[in-house]
Design brief:
The chain is an alpha/beta fold. 44% of the residues lie in helices and 20% in strands. It has 4 domains: 115 residues, Beta Barrel (OB fold (Dihydrolipoamide Acetyltransferase, E2P)); 156 residues, 3-Layer(aba) Sandwich (Rossmann fold), CATH 3.40.50.261; 45 residues; 43 residues, no CATH class. InterPro entries: Exonuc_VII_L (IPR003753), Exonuc_VII_lsu_C (IPR020579), OB-fold_nuc-bd_dom (IPR025824).
Length: 409
């Protein structure tokens, strides 16, 4: 058994203070673990490159985060490709982790490497665009309205850039009292994405900032790639403060334009849309005041005319007119009622007189007045047949002048 394996087998697989691993055992185990990772495709940006005749060394950096690792290769095909690359190029590389036990350093052996072309970048951006659309991050209803008069404007741009000057100059011309909180960041390169994200998060956390402008003054397609970086785009989409994307590139719109709350074509356009023009606003106020005055004067004039019309009505010219009219109506009604009552009574009196004459004509008394008499006995009453009267029977005779008691003979 080799000496190294004997030493490793004699050591405990669980290290402790009493049973520590040797450096050799540790580095061997670490190499085994790293080797098990296998070959991995990695995308990044070459920050350093030192090509030689039979080997090259360099460094591959992350596109967003400040992270990287060393790379090397002795493969002829890789060396041929490396000779055509330069620092700052975006590449895709197939790497195999390699651990140097003697120095304890790691390096990635490049098995294959190629530069990321423009067509591939466009395809990736388009895939990300469709993904953002699918997630609903580009919907109009998600976009927040810009404040009418922001208290404090956050500005993310390159230091001493033309974009910064355009925004500040046009904003001051429109509203001299406007205030800015400026975050200077790189707007291209391998460190730009991380710095832009950090600036967005810092301004978004500031409660005084009412709106954020993310801007740069245009550039080539490669210069604007950072504004289509997925992490930057999602930072813009997740920003709670209204954010304006003013990258200033009409032909190739970066993805920040798609998810921002407002897209400005240029830095100047961003200033015009974020800051109101004091002259225009004063004109609008003057026009509004004139309209209000006209409305008030017109309303008052209409009310005065209405009051004048009411005052000219007869009821207000003579307040007793309505009383006189009602009094005359009552008098006419009383006269009509009296006349109708008199006519009714006269008619009824005539009817009563006629009935009275009829009654008198049929009255027995009138017959008695003509000499007739009514004979009654003391038992059965009216006597109409002499044969029913007995001799000596007491009878009662009613005459026109009164009653007469007799005895039948």
């Amino acid at each position: 058994m080799p000496e190294e394996e004997q030493q490793q087998s004699s050591e405990s697989r669980v290290s402790s203070e009493l049973t520590p691993w040797s450096v050799s055992n540790f580095t061997s185990s670490l190499k085994d673990w790293i080797t098990k990772l296998g070959n991995v495709w990695v995308e990044g940006q070459i920050s350093q490159i030192s090509p030689k005749k039979d080997v090259f060394f360099g460094e591959l950096r992350d596109l967003v985060a400040d992270k990287g690792f060393s790379i090397h290769s002795r493969r002829p095909d890789v060396l041929n490709t490396i000779s055509e690359l330069a620092a700052g190029d975006r590449v895709v590389a197939l790497v195999h982790p390699d651990f140097w036990e003697r120095s304890g350093k790691t390096s990635m052996d490049v098995l294959a490497i190629r530069k990321v072309g423009l067509g591939e970048l466009l395809e990736r951006i388009e895939r990300l665009r469709q993904q953002l659309i699918k997630e609903g991050l580009t919907l109009a209803e998600r976009k927040q309205p810009l404040p009418f008069l922001p208290n404090l404007i956050g500005l993310i741009t390159g230091a001493n850039s033309d974009a910064e000057k355009d925004v500040l100059q046009n904003a001051k011309l429109r509203w001299p009292e406007v205030r800015f909180k400026i975050q200077h960041t790189p707007v291209q390169g391998d460190k730009a994405a991380a710095e832009i994200i950090k600036a967005i998060q810092a301004l978004d956390a500031d409660s005084e900032v009412d709106v954020i402008i993310l801007t740069r003054g245009g550039g080539s397609f490669q210069d604007l790639l950072v504004f289509s970086d997925e992490q930057v785009v999602r930072a813009v989409a997740n920003c709670k403060t209204p954010i304006v994307s003013a990258i200033g590139h009409e032909n190739d719109r970066p993805l920040t334009d798609e998810v921002a709350d407002f897209r400005a074509s240029t830095p100047t356009d961003a200033a015009k849309n974020v800051v109101p023009d004091v002259v225009d606003e004063r004109k609008k106020i003057s026009i509004a005041l004139e309209r209000i005055a006209l409305r008030v004067v017109g309303y008052v004039q209409n009310q005065l005319e209405l009051i004048a019309g009411i005052r000219t009505r007869p009821v207000f010219a003579n307040p007793f007119t309505i009383v006189d009219e009602r009094s005359l109506n009552i008098t006419q009604l009383l006269t009509t009622l009296q006349s109708q009552t008199k006519n009714f009574l006269d008619k009824e009196q005539l009817q009563i007189a006629g009935l009275r004459g009829q009654v008198r004509a049929l009255s027995p008394k009138l017959t008695l007045d003509r000499g007739y008499a009514v004979v009654r006995n003391l038992k059965d009453g009216l006597v109409t047949d002499p044969k029913k009267v007995s001799k000596g029977e007491k009878l009662k005779i009613t005459l026109a002048g009164g009653d007469l008691g007799v005895t039948a003979d």
